[in-house]
Structure formats: structure tokens, C-alpha cells
Amino acid sequence: MKAYTTSKRLFERSGAALAGGVSSSLRAAMRPVPLFAASGRGAVVTDADGNRYIDYLLAYGPLILGHAHPELTERIHAAMTNGYTFGLQHEGEIELAARLTEALPCAEQVAFSGSGTEAVMLALRIARSHTGRTKIVRFHGHYHGWSDAIFTAFPSADMKGGAASDAGGKTMPGTGGQSELALQDVILLPWNDAVALEETLRARGHEVAAVITEPVMCNSGCIRPRDGYLERMRELTRELGIVLIFDEVITGFRFGLGGAHERFGIAPDLMTMGKALAGGIALSAVAGSRELMRVVSSGKVSHLGTLNGNCVATAAAIATLDILGRNGGEAFVRMEATAARLAQGLRERIAANGFRGVVNQEGPVFHMMFIDRDAVEDFAAFSERDGALYSDFAERMLEEGVLVRTNGLWYVSTEHTEAHAEATLQAADRALARLAAERRTEGGERRG
Ligand SMILES: Cc1ncc(COP(=O)(O)O)c(C=O)c1O
């Protein structure tokens, strides 16, 4: 058994002055205790008790180059020694903006912020200002940050509390303290349902400023868009003068430098990026056509933020872009192959240990779930998964030296090797066997 004594002690201590003992509500869901990190190198993180884990949490996504990547660290350090932030313009912003417009098919201009939440806030504002309309269409199971304007309730093992969404046709707040009025402009629809989308847009399109979607529903099941779905979304929004926003906070710099929209060959009007953009340093971006970004350039839309585009963040993003782009982007091919191998290996081991489950993989990210189905293609199906069982599995995986998110989403970095994947699959086999044995014992005790 691994000891988590130091993490437990630190967690008890942290609650004294740090509200809830964590800095982001999701982290409190971790069992047996929210772990305290001591250090990370490559694909491996070490906790405060000295336990080492192959890391697929990757800080909830940003660590595309793994922990403390030597070149990234060196370039961040070089930027820091020159001054971190000036509140003045600097050349790094120009270079990064230009590099992003080269890499992202949908981008003629970009604007920088600090977090994915802020990037989404700006994108919505641009869409409303550009169209003169107010409503935003978003989808069940997608996550677009926690701002009042867009954070709706949806059931998730990670989220504490939260009302049932869309109760009685009304979009419900995702958190206490959120104004119900904030969501009166949000229309919540099922995703991967072209008919529901078309019906709503035909009826209400004249009041809709934007449709915002994750191009792959990474936050709930890593679900692919059905064939033709995003294309139909693109056609309808274009026809009805609605701004199409791809929220690529997860998929940006992860599905290739051009993100998911390059992978699928569909250009949104606007996209948001965050997480992997600067390899673990806080930076986000909105990118889009010059025509749309004009409301920012003209000052019609306020885009504010003290630390926006700071030198450390832009240097980190340029370095991340350089590293990921080397040798024709072979890092993406490698990451995807590792993810595919892990996903297939997990499918086999789930079945071999007598469980029913689905692993949905797209690029270097996948979602593993226990569910009595052969496929999970929409949020309704995803909601049937056994989240408690997965959470037990995640806890057993910690014991086996593998760190995974408690909701089932796994990220792969450039630093995960075949050897890591093999060790992970062996660990999963042991964790699943233990779970199966525990279930048999529990079943036996209940019958006895
Ligand atoms: C698709 C998507 N959009 C936006 C966000 C919000 O990003 P941040 O946590 O940086 O505010 C997230 C975070 O997980 C996300 O997955």
C-alpha cells in the first residue's frame, strides 16, 4: 500500500487558510486525498510522500511537453531574466500572433488572455458585438469555463452539487452564487444531433449570436462529432449569419498545431485556445477572421487583462510551438500512436477482467468509462456510465503508480514512451483485477 500521509497532513493544513484546501474545485474530488505534488520530470510526477506516478492528468491538459521540459524551461528562464511583464507591448506578442495565424487555418488575427474561461468570454463578446444579437447556443456536456455567462449545470462525477440542467426548458446555473439571469441568453441543446440544431436555428437563428462547441466533446466522453455534423453546423451558421466558435481549449495544439478544425477541415469563425498553448504557463487566445476581430481592433469590444500577453507566457508558447512543430510535427503522430495503444490495451483489459466499458480516443486524448454499452456517441449515453466505479479504478491506479483524472479523461504528452504505455497497461490490469476481486467479495458478503 502506498502511503499518502504527507498529502493527508498537508491537505488538513491547507484548509486553514486556503478555502476548501484546493485552488480549483475539481481537485477536491481526488481520492483518497487531493495529492500534493513535489516535482515532475517528463511523464512522471512525484508527490509529497515520494510516490512516483506516470502522469496522464498532465495538470488537466496543459503539459503537452510533460513536466519541466528542458528546452521549454530554459526558454522560460531566459524570458524571465529579461523581465516578466511590462504592461507595454513587446516583440514576443507580435511573433506569437504571427506564428499562430500561420498555424491555425481559421486565424487572421488573435487576442491573448490568461485562461480558457477568459478566451471564451471574449469570443462570446465578439460574436454578440459583431452580430448585434444576444443568444448563445451551447451543448449539454460541453465545458466552456466557469464564467457566469456560460457555466451551466450538467451532471459530472467531478462537479459537486449543481442543479439538473435545462429543468423545465430553463438553463440552470452551474454553481451557487451564479445569477440565473446570466444564463437567460443561453440555449442548451443536445450535441451530435443535427436535427435539434437545425430546428432551433431555423426557429430562433435571428436572435442567435453564436453557436459554441467543443469540436470533439472531450469534457464528456471524448465523443467524436458524427459524420457530417460539424459540416452541417458550419453550413447552418453561415447561412443564418451566426458566428461559429470552436472551443479548442483542449484540442488546440493537441490535435496538431492547427487544432481540431484543421484535422476536420472545417474553419470556424472564431476559436479559443488555452491549456497546451504555452505548455503549462497561463496563456489563452481567441483567433479568427480579421472581419470579426475588427470589433476588438476598433475598441468596440473591451479586451482587458493586466497580464495578457506577458513575456513569459508568449516565450513559453513560441517554444512550445517550435518544439511541437519539429520534424514535420512527428510528435503529434507519436502521441496519437501512444494514445491509440493505451486505448486499445485498456479496452482489452477491461473485458479480460470481466467489466463492460468504452474507451473513446481521438488524437492524444481519450476517455475511459465503465458502461454497459458497445459505444458512447452522445451525452445521454455518456450519462449512463458508472462514475463511482471509475473513481475506484482511478484510486487503484494511484496505488499502481499511475495518475489519472477521476472523471476518466486521459491526456498523453510528448514524453510518454512505449515503455510508459506498457507499464501503464500492466498497472491497469492489476488495478482491474483488484477491483473485480473486491466486487466478488462484496457480492459474496451481501449474499452471505
Ligand atoms: C473546452 C474548454 N473550454 C474552456 C475551458 C476553461 O479553461 P480554463 O480552465 O483555463 O479557464 C476548459 C477547461 O477545462 C475547457 O476544457
From TrEMBL:
Keywords: Aminotransferase, Pyridoxal phosphate, Transferase. GO terms for molecular function: pyridoxal phosphate binding; transaminase activity. It comes from the Bacteria. Pfam families: Aminotran_3. Gene3D superfamilies: Aspartate Aminotransferase, domain 1, Type I PLP-dependent aspartate aminotransferase-like (Major domain). Its cofactor is pyridoxal 5'-phosphate. Belongs to the class-III pyridoxal-phosphate-dependent aminotransferase family. This is Aspartate aminotransferase family protein.
